[in-house]
Amino acid sequence: MQQMDWEKLAGKFQFQGRFVDVEPITLGHINDTYAVTVEQEGGQRRRFILQRINHHVFQNPPQVMENIEAVTQHLRAKVIAAGGDPERETVNLVPTVDGRSYHVSDDGNYWRAAKFIEGARTYDEATGPLFYNAGKAFGQFMRLLDDFPADTLHETIPQFHDTRKRYNDLMEAVKRDAAGRAGQVQPEIEFAKAREKDASVVVDLIAEGKIPLRVTHNDTKLNNVMICDRTGEAICVVDLDTVMPGSALYDFGDAVRFGASTAPEDETDLSKVGIDLELFRKFTEGYLAAAGDVLTPAELDLLAFSAKLITYELGMRFLTDYLNGDVYFKIHRPHHNLERARAQFRLVEDMEAKMDQMEAIVREAYEAVKQG
Ligand code: GN1
Ligand code: MG
């Protein structure tokens, strides 16, 4: 990356100004993200997001971009129809100078750009009001895309949230033991095995047609919601790379996994890791306020369980990557993936202990929404 000619790269996009500088934004475990500043006519400076798509993870970047284009067009029309601000309330891709949604650099990397949403930021840690608003934003996202034909989207990472497949991948990684680490992680492997039957619950219901396939975000972390600095309201949901057909349950669950946890995703002091039921309540209230009437009874029944399911799934993904020698997720220290897996599994345990309370919270929040 040292020898990058940023000015040249920026020149490939319709930024309509003179390149000033570029700054890395360190977020995410997959893509590389930068903020580019340009000076436009009249001396006004504007920022854009520039991202290199990880094409090992997303093996077909053009399909990723087609999905994002289609979904943002749909959202844009909805925002306009509702009298909102389409420049802020959805991701706005910036096309290349030849009118495409991505640029392939000489070294074979895929780049894409979007307008920077100013006066807003993302948060890694939730507070009650913030998390309520995030719940509304993800509920709204689902609702606005309820009439989008999910089957026209590409499945850019096949079986992304198929917990059964993630379980099988883990067992495969244990067998291969590519990095010679399986011997050290027996308790974690046993933890995953003990919950094998959970892995099939949602995928089986989808296969039987009992849970609908929807347009889903598939990476509903709190830090994928832009929050307005002025109002504290959620403006829009970003990071649309994994928008695909899927189950709303995984979206709801993943948001809870990340945002309602009492500790970061990679906390090493496991005594700090658990689910904060008040935060869970806030998110559920926000989500159901926006999307409660769109969800089916089968989905509502599994909301609380879905939080545990996706946490279990991600724990298995981290553990699998650890066994494979850290080939998928970016790591920042030697046993990072194992630490992440342990924190996820600890969170699973805490959710199991509190599952009755979580289910009661979902019922209460739903009743409250129904009574308006
Ligand atoms: C990855 O890169 P990031 O942080 O947006 C991963 C998600 C995980 C998440 C865990 C394509 O997302 O599935 O939940 O890390 N994305 C992909 O933090 O695998
Ligand atoms: Mg992501």
Please explain how this structure is put together.
The protein has 372 residues and is an alpha+beta fold. It folds into two domains: 6-118, 2-Layer Sandwich (Phosphorylase Kinase, domain 1); 128-370, Aminoglycoside phosphotransferase (APH), C-terminal lobe (Aminoglycoside 3'-phosphotransferase, Chain: A, domain 2, Alpha-Beta Complex), CATH 3.90.1200.10. It is 45% helix and 14% strand. It is built from eleven helices and eleven strands. A hairpin with a 5-residue loop joins strand 2 (32-39) and strand 3. Helix 4 packs parallel to helix 9 (297-323) and helix 9 (297-323) crosses helix 11 (355-370). The longest helix is centred in the last third of the chain and has 27 residues, at 297-323. The chain starts with 5 loop residues before the first helix and ends with a helix. The model has no long low-confidence stretch (mean pLDDT 96). Residues 28, 30, 219, 239, 241 line the site of magnesium ion.
